[in-house]
Amino acid sequence: MMKLAIYMTLIFTTLACNTEFLSAEEEVEVSQDSLKIDRPEKITDYAIDENPLIAFDSLTPIIHEELRGPVPLHQNPDGQSSIKVHATNIKIQSSIETSDDWVLVGIPIDETFEFRDINKSNVWQEIWKNGEHFATTYYVKNKEGKNIEPYIWYDDHFIRGYVHNTNIALNTVPEHHLENLINAGDLSKTAFDKYLWSFQFQYSGKKLGDYDNIQQFYKHPSYIDGRSAPDRLLLIFQNEKLIAVQHDRSLNLDHFQSFDCEMGLSLIILADWTEEEKKAFTNTISDCKY
Hints:
Elements: H1 2-10, H2 24-27, E1 66-67, E2 71-74, E3 81-85, E4 90-91, E5 93-99, E6 102-108, E7 113-120, E8 123-129, E9 132-138, E10 140-141, E11 147-148, E12 153-154, E13 158-164, H3 174-183, H4 193-198, E14 202-203, E15 214-219, E16 233-238, E17 241-247, E18 257-260, E19 266-269, H5 275-284
Antiparallel strand pairs: 1-4, 2-3, 3-9, 5-6, 6-13, 7-8, 8-9, 10-11, 12-13, 14-15, 15-16, 16-17, 17-19, 18-19
C-alpha cells in the first residue's frame, strides 16, 4: 500500500503545452476530460482558506517535466547507452545531479510496467508498459569488448539514467518559464498565479523574520534526489510583488544580484533595494550570506 501511494503521487495526467506559457484557454482544448483535472489532495500544511491558489479553475493545466522520445539513457554522463526508450513524451523527474550538459533523470515505475528477460544477442531485457514495448535494455561492452550486464538503476520507483539536457522538453521545465515571466517585467503576483498552480508549487504560509505581508511558494525537490534535498524553487512575494527567488538550478537572470546559500542554493533579489536592505534580507533567509 505504501508503494502504491508513492506511485499514485508520482503518476499524473500530463496535458500538452505550447513552448510559451499561455493562458489556459490558449493551451488546452476544453473537453469533458479536461474538466476532470483534480487539485492536489494536500495543497498546504496550513488552513485551506489561507492558500491563495485554491481559487484556480480546474482547466488550468498541470505541467510535468517530459523527456522527448525515443531517447537513449546512459549509465554515466556521455557514457555507453544501456537503455533505449521507445516511447515519446515520457513523464520524468530530473535531478540536480548534472555533468556539463548531462542530466540524471528518473522515469516513474508503476504496476503497469513489465520487465522481460531476453538474453539474446546484445539485448538484455525488454520493458513493457500497458502491453506496449516501452524500452529495451542492452548489454554493454567491457574493456575486452565482451557483453556484460549493464548497471541499471532500478528500484521500486524509477528507471534512472543520464540524458543530454536537450532531450528534456524545454516547455515543461519550471525554471524556463520562470525566466520568461521575470524577464517580461511584471513581478505582480497575479502574473505568476497560473505558473504557481501549473507547476504545483505549495503555499508555505510561514512568516519571514519581521517582514510584513510575505507570501512564500515552494516547489518540492525531485523524488530521485531524496527527501533531504532542498526545495527546487522558492518564490517570495511581499505586498503581492515578487521580491526574491531561491533556487538550486541554473537561472539565466544575470541582471539581478545573486547570493550564495548552503546546500548549493542561490538567492536572487529582485526588489529595488539598497545594499543595506539586501544585506538585511539575505541574512534573514536561512543559510544565505550577503
